[in-house]
Structures are given as C-alpha cells and as structure tokens.
Automatic annotation (TrEMBL):
One of its GO terms (biological process) is thiamine biosynthetic process. GO terms for molecular function: ATP binding; hydroxyethylthiazole kinase activity; magnesium ion binding. Keywords: ATP-binding, Kinase, Magnesium, Metal-binding, Nucleotide-binding, Thiamine biosynthesis, Transferase. It is an enzyme of class 2 (transferase). Its cofactor is Mg(2+). It holds the Pfam family HK. It comes from Corynebacterium camporealensis. Pathway: Cofactor biosynthesis; thiamine diphosphate biosynthesis; 4-methyl-5-(2-phosphoethyl)-thiazole from 5-(2-hydroxyethyl)-4-methylthiazole: step 1/1. NCBIfam families: PRK09355.1. This is Hydroxyethylthiazole kinase.
C-alpha cells in the first residue's frame, strides 16, 4: 500500500479540513491537522457551514458533544459537501443517547466518503449494540462483519480503530498494527484520526488508501512517541511531534499491514 504517495500528496495539497467536532478536542484536533500537514477550519455554524463545505478539501462530522445549533451546522455542511467534498462521519458514542444515534443513522445515508469509529460504534451504526459511552466494549475483529455491511450499504470506506485498526471497503479489508496503548489515555487521538481521514481524502484520489494512510500515520506516530514519553501528558506532545516529523517511508516502516 502506497503510504508514501498519499503522504506526499497531503504535503503538497495542504488540504483545508472543515471540522465540526466536539468541544473537548477542538484545539487538539486542529494541532494534529497542522502537524500532519493540513489546514484546519473549526467552523460549525449553520449559517456558514454549507458554503464553507463547498470550498474545503475535506469535512469532518464528529458527534461527540452536539448542540442543537451544531446539529444544524452538521446538516448544512453535509448538504454543502454533496458532489463537492469528501466528508467523514465519526459516530461518537453511537448506540448510547437516542438523539445522537438517530442523527448518525440519518446522515450515514447521505454518502460519507468514510466512517471512522471504534468497534462498538461501528457495530451500533450497523444496528447492533453500542459500547459504554465513548469506550468500546467490542474488539476490532468483532466489527468486521458490521464494517463490511456498512461499506456495502453506504459506499464509504470504514475505519475501525483500536489496538489494531481495520480498514474496509466493499471489496477489501486490511489490518494495520502499530501505535501504543497510551493512545487510549489521551483524549482526542481518535477524534483527531477522523480529521486526518478527512485530510487524506481531500488530498488523495484513492479513498481506501487515503483512509488507511491516515490510520497508519496516527499509529506510526504513537509508536514513535512512546520512545520519548512514558505518561499521557508527555505522550500527547510527542505524538503531535511525530505526526509532523514522519515521512511516508517512515510511516510504512512503523506499522505492519495484514
């Protein structure tokens, strides 16, 4: 898989990524995009989101802490993205509160280029049981069938993140092994991964490779970060540094593809 080509395209395009995301991770997500080589726009108002989605290279829809206004902004951004811009659905805590779950089931029918979540979120989005809040109670292998069904129903590339990451489309799937358990001890790494998917989709014309490279980049950065950090606070900083420092060849060397 050509991670180097996808990464080179990201650096060349410097994609503008519109992030409609949760308030817990806004700053961290913006910094992750900047470190990786993209340009963040944290714009989620109903009045501007549709217009901005038409000029962005990629759009992230993350339903972590939605308000009534943000739901309106998300719907507007999805409408603006149709036919113009690849967008990513991150169904945070899908299968928990009814309102967010209903919203995710509604918008997943509107042609996301990718869906990114943990195993429980992906299973729940396909009609199964959810996890415990934002935490997955299922493992990545458990989500394979649900991810394959979602990919076939929606046409999206589905990324399932965990100790290893599963990338699925209607015709193929791969497992990416890398990273470190400290990634689960830093709030925002998964949400930032959704934004990285939008960035790579906006820069590279093969959606499957784009989403796989985003996951590989994030995982590889985790593998590198733990060499200089042994606790969550320092790891978060080291992870951002690694996103910046890794090139395509280094990303490929830090992960295993199966």
């Amino acid at each position: 898989m050509d991670f180097a080509d996808a990464h080179a395209c990201l650096q060349k395009v410097e994609p503008l990524v519109q992030c409609l995301t949760n308030k817990v991770v806004t700053n961290f997500t913006a910094n992750a995009l900047l470190a990786a080589g993209a340009s963040p726009a944290m714009l989620d108002t109903p009045e501007e989101s549709e217009e901005f989605a038409q000029i962005a290279h990629g759009v992230l829809i993350n339903i972590g802490t939605p308000s009534t206004e943000q739901y309106g902004g998300m719907r507007a951004a999805i409408a603006g993205a149709q036919g113009h811009t690849p967008w990513v659905l991150d169904p945070v805590a899908m299968g928990g509160p009814k309102l967010r779950s209903d919203f995710a089931r509604e918008v997943v029918q509107q042609h996301p280029a990718a869906i990114r979540g943990n195993a429980s979120e992906i299973i729940a989005l396909n009609g199964g049981a959810g996890g415990r809040g934002t935490e997955s109670t299922a493992n990545v292998n458990d989500a394979l069938a649900a991810a394959q069904e979602l990919a076939k129903k929606t046409g999206a590339v589905v990324g399932v993140s965990g100790p290893k990451d599963l990338i699925v489309d209607a015709n193929q799937h791969v497992l990416i092994e890398g990273g470190h358990p400290l990634l689960q001890k830093v709030t925002g790494t998964g949400c930032a991964l959704g934004a990285l998917c939008a960035a790579y989709l906006g820069a590279y014309d093969d959606p499957f490779v784009a989403v796989a490279t985003a996951h590989a980049h994030a995982s590889a950065a985790g593998s590198v970060a733990v060499r200089s950090a042994s606790a969550p606070g320092s790891f978060a900083v080291a992870w951002l540094d690694a996103l910046y420092e890794l090139d395509g060849a280094a990303i490929a060397n830090e992960v295993t593809i199966k």
